[in-house]
Write a structure and sequence with these properties.
The complex is a heterodimer. In chain A, β18 and β19 form a beta hairpin. Chain A is built from eleven helices and 22 strands. Chain A has three domains: 151 residues; 87 residues; 174 residues, Porin (Beta Barrel). Chain A is of the alpha+beta class. Chain B is an alpha+beta fold. Chain B is built from five helices and five strands. In chain B, strands 1, 2, 3, 4 and 5 form a five-stranded antiparallel beta sheet that branches. Classes of the chains: A alpha+beta, B alpha+beta. At the A-B interface, α6 and β9 of A face α2, β4 and β5 of B.
Chain lengths: 561, 171
């Protein structure tokens, strides 16, 4: 009874503090439904080894794969595939049949072989969840660190289960067959898969917790152990549907007979493990975007550089985007958070231990927004895909309508930053593919306009010198194509070049910029191939198109995704 | 007709001037000295021996000023209000219970609560410096922080100054 009263008091005492961002570690249980599709047994054999991302506590199940052999997948086949989701009721029924809630609560309350519960896991997880602020506030109280242990109880209500349904699983050979790809082009082996996932939260609100401690909690040696044990096993707990996700993934490797192929190929099991991990990596940002509880939040602890006491424990990765907010009050007294700035991480602290009040902070650089201070401003995770799209026009030189796709490879370079050091030099590093089209008359050569297309590849780096303004030095290699028909002979021009220059960007919004650039080209020899004779000859490009070797200036807009 | 319009114009002018002045007075009433208005304070649990663990809010024209004001409010609350909201574990009865004591010892309290004054010896942040902050208007911030107040030492200070009677005196 004393224990019940204590927990009752704790539940009421752990009310959120007004205006502070609420983030506490969530727990995630992974499971899969197996409708016995082609190759599903290969995936399901590896599924039990799949772990949730590090920012979650893991509540594993004894049997994470549920066989649905002989059961028709309950989806509306008349809808397009991307809209076909199983109803929540179907999954909830399965969760109840499999006693998933009981297994999760058994982990949280450290259920022993005799059926008794204790609070050891709750304490450990409460301590591990605490940040410096929690720790120091707790040590200022009479109860000390036990306050942090008690905080573990709040975390039980943040227990989630993610149910995977993998389908359309194909080997690369099957994929090549489906696309009628010739033997020469069949360069890789591996797997492709589609997956739908369903996220549910176990309801362990104050009322449920009170009911649990009253009716199901049983300590070692309690006289009603058997009765309460049975009651717990027969209980039905409430599941709350949160969100559904859909992803596609593939894991391949070059065949050993290919130039880039490794002689020692990855095994089928290793490929499948990577595939499952890849699906998980793609599902996680989707879950974070639709479920606020999954988005990491932290107070700004320092401003030069902008810092926050989060790190690997919260799953922070290098060059990851966060928004900085300030709470504001409307005239009617309600609060809302207003974005102040956008930052990206440049140093990720390894804080994967129980805090002692002196945790190392991670560091960030600002890409957009106003002045940031550490007097109550807080940051919140806002994932970006790292993809940019530029649309514009190039004047002079190799003029034309220009499009460019960019990808921030810096997101994958966190491992190159030495522990405890800032990796600012590696931030916002990108690779790009640029294409352009031009239609221009050269009356000296022919009356009709020439059509030029070009494509280039390169690397660049966004360098932020002041808020919202950046420049991007870049370097690349490209080829420009055109053709000319002279007296029924078609001449194909192929001119390769190196390009380098400087782009200047101004953020009008966090994901939208005005960009201009200056490009200087080093033109190599033009290869002119006569299609009729098959003869190729080299020329200087300026013998035909003198203006196209000049430097160019482009302007346009860039979207960041 | 013209004199009537002039009269209305002068009247409106006076209304505007009065409104501005009233607003200034209210602002001063909130911000000046230790007279910090109707601030919020709540108990955060039982503090270490001789301390009160509270979360208290202050107002200011910038977050630093509001945080500074919150410290004054914390000490002021333990002296004159008691901590009645929040979790159990704080003293609900203020140290100074004599009616009118604040006015009676005005000079002492003005000095005690002056900026950088002695009150700072009795209050400290009870966390890593994290504060809650709400921007109320373009020129007003509300900042809340968790603080520890040395109420036992504060009692001794007030006893020594003759503002409150020593414990046990009068029995």
């Amino acid at each position: 009874m004393k224990l019940l009263l204590t927990f009752g008091l704790l539940v009421t005492a752990l009310t959120p503090i007004l205006a502070q961002p609420e983030y506490a570690r969530n727990s995630l249980t992974l499971m899969a439904v197996d409708f016995n599709g082609k190759h599903s047994n290969t995936l399901m054999a590896q599924f039990p080894s799949l772990q949730p991302p590090e920012k979650f506590y893991n509540n594993p199940l004894q049997k994470p794969v549920i066989s649905m052999a002989g059961v028709q997948r309950p989806v509306n086949a008349e809808l397009p595939e991307f809209l076909q989701y199983m109803p929540s009721d179907f999954i909830i029924k399965m969760l109840e049949e499999q006693k998933v809630a009981q297994q999760i609560l058994a982990t949280w309350f450290n259920r022993q072989a005799d059926g008794s519960f204790n609070v050891e896991v709750l304490k450990q997880r409460g301590l591990y969840n605490a940040n410096d602020n929690d720790f120091l506030a707790a040590t200022a109280s009479k109860r000390g660190e036990t306050v942090l242990m008690d905080m573990g109880l709040k975390l039980v209500n943040q227990s989630y289960v993610l149910v995977y349904d993998y389908f359309d699983i194909m080997t690369m050979d099957e994929y090549y067959d489906s696309k009628n790809i010739d033997a020469k082009s069949r360069t890789s082996n591996g797997y492709k898969v589609k997956a739908k996932s369903y996220l549910f939260r176990l309801d362990f609100s104050e009322a449920v917790a009170a009911d649990f401690f009253k009716n199901y909690w049983v300590g070692k040696g309690d006289k009603d152990l058997k009765i309460k044990m049975n009651a717990f096993d027969q209980a039905t707990f409430k599941w709350i549907p949160i969100a559904n996700q859909r992803v596609e993934a593939e894991v391949t490797q070059y065949n050993p007979d290919q130039l880039a192929g490794l002689k020692k190929q990855k095994s089928k099991e290793e490929l499948v493990q990577h595939l499952l991990f890849d699906v998980m990596e793609k599902v996680t940002p989707q879950m974070e975007s639709t479920n606020e509880a999954f988005r990491v939040k932290a107070m700004v602890s320092k401003t030069k550089p902008i810092s926050a006491k989060i790190g690997k424990k919260e799953g922070l990765s290098f060059d990851q985007r966060y928004f900085i907010y300030e709470n504001q009050q409307r005239k009617d007294g309600t609060l809302f958070k207003k974005r102040v700035a956008v930052v990206k991480s440049m140093k990720v602290a390894d804080n994967r231990q129980v805090t002692t009040g002196q945790s190392e902070a991670s560091e960030f650089y600002k890409i957009f927004g106003g002045k940031v201070d550490n007097m109550g401003m807080f940051m919140e995770q806002k994932n970006d895909a790292g993809l940019n799209l530029f649309l514009g026009y190039t004047l002079d030189g190799m003029a034309g309508y220009t499009g460019r796709m960019e990808y921030f490879i810096s997101k994958m370079m966190g491992g190159m930053v030495p522990a405890g050091k800032s990796g600012k030099g590696l931030t916002s590093l990108l690779v790009y593919v640029e294409g352009a089209y031009d239609n221009k008359k050269y009356p000296d050569l022919k009356e009709k306009p020439f059509e030029f297309t070009r494509v280039s590849l390169g690397i660049g780096k966004d360098v932020y010198l002041m808020s919202a303004v950046f420049f991007e030095p870049y370097l690349g290699y490209g080829i420009e194509f055109t053709n000319w028909t002279v007296e029924d002979e078609k001449l194909n021009f192929e001119t390769s070049y190196a390009e380098m220059g400087l782009r200047l960007g101004i953020h009008l919004a966090p994901s939208f910029q005005l960009m201009g650039s200056y490009k200087y080209n080093i033109i190599f020899k033009t290869q002119v191939k006569n299609e009729s004779t098959g003869v190729t000859e080299s020329y200087d490009y300026d013998e035909f198109f003198k203006d196209r070797i000049e430097p160019g200036i482009s302007a346009g807009i860039r979207f960041m995704f | 007709m013209k004199s009537g319009l002039n009269f209305i114009a002068i009247g409106l002018f006076l209304v505007v001037i009065t409104a501005c002045k009233t607003s200034k007075v209210n602002k001063d009433a909130v911000m000046a000295g230790y007279v910090s208005g109707n601030y919020e304070i709540e108990c955060m649990g039982t503090g270490m021996d001789g301390t009160q663990l509270v979360k208290v809010w202050g107002f200011g024209t910038d977050p630093e000023q509001a945080a500074y004001q919150a410290r004054k409010n914390a000490v002021h609350a333990v002296m004159f209000k008691g901590i009645n909201a929040g979790k159990p574990g704080c003293m609900t009865r203020p140290l100074v219970t004599q009616p009118g004591a604040e006015e009676l010892h005005r000079e002492f309290f003005n000095t005690f609560f002056t900026d950088g004054g002695r009150y700072l010896s009795f209050v400290s942040m009870a966390n890593d410096g994290t504060v809650d902050r709400i921007k109320m208007t373009s020129k007003e911030y509300k900042v809340g922080s968790v603080m520890s107040i040395r109420h036992a030492a504060l009692r001794q200070e007030l006893e020594a100054a003759g503002i409150i009677k020593k414990l046990g005196q009068g029995f």
